[in-house]
Amino acid sequence: MTDTTHSGDPAADEPRRTSVTKRGGGAAATRGRTTIADGVVEKIAGLAARDVVGVHAMGSGLSRTFGAVRDRVPGGGGAKASVTRGVKAEVGEVQTALDLEIVVDYGVSIADVAGDVRENVIAAVERMTGLEVVEVNIAVSDVKLPEEEEEEEEPRLQ
After folding, report:
1. Class of the 36-144 domain?
2. Which of 69, 81, 82, 128 has the fewest CB atoms within 10 Å of its CB?
3. Cβ-contact 46, 67 below 8 angstroms
């Protein structure tokens, strides 16, 4: 035989439930602040712009010349400087604006290349940072002609 007693109060007859206290309250994404440096956005934009067919180089002739010299000097900036060459970013809390200076290959449609660069840069920056890209200004500073030699010098050591 089983002896059960009821108190007559349905709430009292149910098993007791313990409440779990959550610490911190709210989603993890709301617990703190994330800041993204201008240089991070510049790197992302620089790499995305270089991926577009028809973009020969980034930056003006003078900045590319100085960059080539800086790349050869130990501790001169090297890869970081070449990735961000020709890119300037202004980063706010939720938005960013970009200025790019590009050199295009001869024979390509500059309008098409600029449009493709704009699309690629916006997609990459928004996907990776979550920032809204409000504008991408593109300045075409030069056209690379097929017969022009590259600015690379012969290596001093063989």
Report:
1. alpha beta
2. 69
3. no
